[in-house]
Amino acid sequence: MSGDLLRARDGREARVGFVELFFDLIFVFAITQISHTLLAHLTWVGVLQAAILLGAVWWSWIDTSWITNWLDPERVLVRIMIFALMGAGLVMSTSLPDAFGDKGLVFACAFATLQLGRGLFTLWAVRRDEVLLKNVQRIAVWAALGAVLWIGGGLVEGQTRLLVWLVAVITEFIGPAVTFWTPGLGRSSSSDWEVEGGHMAERVGLFIIICLGESILVTGATFAGLEWTRPVVGAFATAFIGSLAMWWIWFSRAHDAASEAIAGSDDAGRLARSAYTYAPILVVAGIVVTAVGDEMSLSNPGGVVKFPVAAALIGGPMLFLIGAQVFKLAAFGTWSVPRLGGILALGALGFVVPSLTPLGLAAAATAVLVGVGAWETAARHNARSEDAVAGD
């Protein structure tokens, strides 16, 4: 029975299964590939290409996380589906560096297979659940449209491929925002997207860990191949502390509170779409760009700060904080003064770039991240102290 493949909604919190963690290993490789691709093509076109590829990787992962929020990964058939997706994901990941070259069609076919294959399996799995079936039908139609665009882009070359794939990734982003409106089928209602808040929060948190782990991996691999001079050691320490600061900021009380907010929301699907589907892509992009900046500052900690280095060292942390602010706004409808202050401070660093070395700029950006984390922690501590006094 198809109902046997659905997660039991019995009030117990759904935990992330080992098969889901196994699936995530593919994306450790994918994020590493994107970082190296961006580092090798630090031009405006290269940045746009990396953004398109990151968007494809993100949607292949987050869409799967939504499906495993509905389907039970402990069921054999669901596991087989996940293993099949891993195969397609591995092909997709290996083709990333040459996706805008000779392996464009391979990348496109792998991505389309992952998206459309998952949709078709889910259609069969939920065929006896009327509400989910209609939702998945609309999602499958959008996946089919995306597959046409991605494969079409893989069949052409140069700027044409870039433009077609830009439309394709925009289509991936638009689908959930318009609740997968489809001619003849109408639109879904986000209130029908039954979501286990704790599971979704844990899944996204684990993806952030993957990205931070990739950042540490790049830093460690680069550091191991260099002569350990004082500036290089300083750049290594700065990069590591920066990764710790991003972990500190993301995995604050807000991360856990957001899952609780979803659980208690009358429209959990809308909240999960905003907080855990859209907002984290900026955080992920920030971590990837920061890793690129860290590698450049490690390779040349002294000297003049060139524009690509400055853009990565400032832009990466800024993207991260913008994403962290968007997440908090989506989850709670509130603005974070520390995160906004950090964004402004990073912007101000642009005015002092000419007087800094790459190591100096990296250290300044890291100091901003540490400051944001400390500010938020102090604010939470003061709030708890005031509540305790009020309760006396």
Give your account of this protein's structure.
- This protein is an all-alpha fold.
- It folds into two domains: 15-188, no CATH class; 197-391, no CATH class.
- Helix content is 77%, strand content 0%.
- It has 13 helices and no strands.
- The protein has helices at residues 18-40, 44-70, 76-94, 104-125, 130-155, 158-177, 197-224, 230-250, 253-263, 268-299, 307-332, 337-349, 358-391.
- Helix 1 crosses helix 10.
- It is globular.
Helical region count? Answer: 13
Order of helices and strands: HHHHHHHHHHHHH
- The proportion of residues forming helix, as a percent range, comes to over 70%
What is the residue-mean pLDDT, rounded to a whole number? 89
**Overall morphology:** globular
Please mark out the parts with pLDDT under 50 across 5 or more consecutive residues, or reply none. Answer: 388-392
Domain count, please report it: 2
Can you summarize the main beta sheet?
A: none
Radius of gyration: 22 Å
Strand content: under 5%
Structural class: mainly alpha
Distance between the termini: 56 Å
Count of DSSP strands: 0
Any key phrases for this structure?
392 residues; mainly alpha; 77% helix; globular; disordered C terminus
Furnish the topology, listing elements before pairings:
Layout: H1 18-40, H2 44-70, H3 76-94, H4 104-125, H5 130-155, H6 158-177, H7 197-224, H8 230-250, H9 253-263, H10 268-299, H11 307-332, H12 337-349, H13 358-391
